[in-house]
Amino acid sequence: MRPDRLRDVLDAVARQTHPEVELVLVTHGFEVPAPELAALSAERGLEHVRAVPADSALTLGACMNLGVDAADGTYVAKMDDDNFYGRHYLADLVAAFGGTSAQVVGKWAHLTYLESTGTVLLRFPAVEQRYSRLVQGGTILVEREVARDLRFEDLPRRVDTTFLDKVRAHGGRVYATDRFGFVSVRSARTAGHTWRVSDAELLAKPSRVLFYGEPWEYADV
């Protein structure tokens, strides 16, 4: 929903080491001219990119379903336009399917970067490499057929939680991998986030301050 983040989204997908990645770009409330998208994708070596325009009146859940319906892969990954994804992010999540019986994998232990103060938090450090009730919404990797069958709820928020609830209600399992490869980036302007919690509220929740400064190198292992 942020046109100014288009290049960042393309960079995040282009840096992935997992082979044969397809990007389905759901543009919420705006459109990207096809020649511009083609040129930007070619600059980054991205071959499989398609844009799916979504009316601004549609909910987040409806936008998610548009993306799922347009995807061709075995798995579908939800990647947000304002978070950081390391080089091995997708490869690591896909590999987790090989050693688990999960229908969804993602991250619950994760880094959070507060841009306003440069604080790097580690949240939910105890939930790594284990089955979990939840994973971060921006890290959901799900079997495409499961996503198409269960669908995301037509809601403006909490679509990740309600989707994971449905997965478990249908006998599925959710697996949380390690803390690396992903950073939840919190802008100083919380109005731009779907989850509009303040930095002060985040700091009051269970977490550990790791350090101050940009976390990209630490996360991208």
UniProtKB/TrEMBL annotation:
Residues 3-106 form the Glycosyltransferase 2-like domain. InterPro entries: Glyco_trans_2-like (IPR001173), Glycosyltransf_2 (IPR050834), Nucleotide-diphossugar_trans (IPR029044). PANTHER family: GLYCOSYLTRANSFERASE, GLYCOSYLTRANSFERASE 2-LIKE DOMAIN-CONTAINING PROTEIN. This is Glycosyltransferase family 2 protein.
